[in-house]
Design goal:
This is Molybdate-binding protein. Helix content is about 75%, strand content about 0%. The protein is mostly helical. The protein has one domain (about 5-45).
C-alpha cells in the first residue's frame, strides 16, 4: 500500500531529522532495493527501552 502525500512528507521529515541526529546510523542503514525498505521500517518501529 502506498503512502499518502502527508505520510510521505512526515517520513521524509523523520528521515532528515534522523540523518541530522545520527549520520553514522543512517549510513549503516543505507542499502538498495527491498533491503533498504525493510531496514527503514524496522528502524521506525524499533523503540529502545
Amino acid at each position: 500500500m502506498a503512502l499518502s502525500n502527508e505520510e510521505q512528507r512526515l517520513l521524509e521529515q523523520m528521515e532528515a531529522a534522523l540523518a541530522a541526529e545520527d549520520p553514522k546510523l543512517v549510513n549503516a542503514m543505507r542499502g538498495t532495493g527491498t533491503r533498504r525498505v525493510h531496514r527503514r521500517r524496522a528502524a521506525l518501529v524499533w523503540q529502545p527501552t
